[in-house]
């Protein structure tokens, strides 16, 4: 009898945890009410993203020799990467049926919880507004930032702990879907702050729900080499230099439509319209545009 009572308490506690997490982060009803009568239905894909050097550039700024968020020096601090919001929107939209709403983007960041008053990603931030505008342009209202899981001062002091913290925050995120039957995930990070360690651990530990990891190659040097993709537990880990390159790889993996790829191309080109074609930003984009053209013509 005591054993049965303990199991009942455990089940109630898990249900409470899942329900609390879902209510707190306001997921759409369609994304969290998968009927058991539809066992063959595709899951919803939630994009999980880092912030600095993934969504926007850190500028490579350092304090006492320690990077303040990342190492990218190609873009100015705070600049959004061309096509980034459209890429994440297209990833979120592709598995949906008509009438379904996409899951909002979850954020795993090394930004310290203790500095949240200054670093918090609010709905009024330029980042949140850019996400929301992208959704609205695609016909979806209120799409954008979902749960944000922060790091701590400890990871700022001991940099090697950042990857582990992001992975443990990912495991916290999984509480939104305790059944494991509703959500699948794609992680988008960068090569500057141990996102690769976090992403590879996700693929090793949760290959059944993490469909792919995309890593933005950033560097303090011009024209860094982009490593080849690799498989971990049968799941792809993809490196890219521009979000057109990321979208092209996603299309090849069957994770976005060709129409979605074209929209990422259009968005990236529009974001760079005021930049000289001689700039490294355009030169690198042209390389990925050529790859995207081959992808578009081969399907």
Can you walk me through this structure?
The chain has about 300 residues and is an alpha/beta fold. Helix content is about 40%, strand content about 15%. It is built from 10 helices and 9 strands. Strands 5-4-1-6-7-9-8 form a 7-stranded mixed sheet, sandwiched between helices. The radius of gyration is 19 Å and the shape is globular. The N terminus is likely disordered.
Features:
seven-stranded mixed beta sheet; 16% strand; globular; alpha/beta; 299 residues; 10 helices; 9 strands; two-stranded antiparallel ribbon
By DSSP, the count of extended strands is 9
N/C terminus separation: 61 Å
H/E series: HEEEHEHHEHHEHEEEHHH
Counting helices, strands and paired strands, the structural category is alpha/beta
**Count of helical stretches:** 10
pLDDT under 50 segments (min length 5)?
1-41
User: How do the strands line up in the largest sheet?
Assistant: 5-4-1-6-7-9-8
Q: Roughly what is the average pLDDT, rounded to an integer?
A: 84
CA radius of gyration = 19 Å
Instruction: Tell me, briefly, the overall form.
Output: globular
* Largest sheet: number of strands, sense, barrel closure: 7 strands, mixed
The helical percent reads 40-55%
Measured by DSSP, the beta-strand proportion falls in 15-25%
In a nutshell, what does this entry contain?
The protein has 299 residues and is of the alpha/beta class. It has helices at 2-25, 84-93, 116-119, 126-137, 153-157, 162-173, 195-205, 243-252, 258-271, 280-298; strands at residues 44-49, 62-63, 66-67, 105-112, 145-151, 183-190, 210-216, 230-232, 235-240. The chain is globular.
């Amino acid at each position: 009898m005591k054993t049965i009572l303990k199991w009942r308490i455990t089940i109630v506690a898990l249900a409470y945890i899942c329900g609390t997490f879902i209510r707190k982060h306001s997921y759409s009803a369609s994304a969290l009410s998968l009927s058991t009568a539809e066992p063959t239905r595709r899951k919803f894909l939630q994009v999980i993203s880092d912030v600095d050097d993934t969504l926007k550039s850190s500028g490579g700024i350092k304090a006492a020799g320690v990077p303040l968020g990342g190492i990218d020096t190609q873009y100015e601090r705070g600049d959004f990467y061309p096509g980034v919001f459209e890429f994440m929107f297209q990833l979120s939209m592709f598995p949906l049926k008509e009438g379904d709403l996409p899951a909002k983007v979850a954020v795993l960041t090394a930004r310290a919880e203790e500095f949240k008053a200054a670093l918090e990603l609010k709905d009024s931030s330029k980042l949140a507004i850019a996400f929301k505008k992208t959704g609205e342009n695609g016909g979806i209202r209120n799409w954008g930032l979902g749960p944000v899981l922060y790091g701590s001062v400890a990871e700022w002091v001991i940099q090697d702990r950042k990857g582990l913290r992001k992975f443990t925050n990912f495991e916290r995120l999984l509480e939104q879907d305790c059944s494991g039957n509703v959500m699948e995930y794609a992680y988008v990070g960068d090569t500057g702050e141990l996102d690769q360690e976090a992403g590879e651990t996700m693929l090793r530990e949760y290959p059944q729900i993490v469909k792919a990891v995309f890593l933005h190659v950033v560097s303090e040097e011009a024209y860094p080499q982009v490593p080849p993709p690799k498989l971990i537990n049968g799941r792809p880990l993809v490196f890219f230099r521009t979000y057109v390159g990321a979208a092209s790889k996603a299309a090849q993996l069957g994770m976005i439509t060709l129409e979605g790829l074209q929209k990422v191309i259009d968005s990236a080109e529009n974001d760079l319209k005021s930049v000289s074609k001689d700039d490294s930003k355009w030169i690198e984009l042209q390389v990925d545009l050529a790859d995207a053209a081959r992808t578009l013509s081969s399907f």
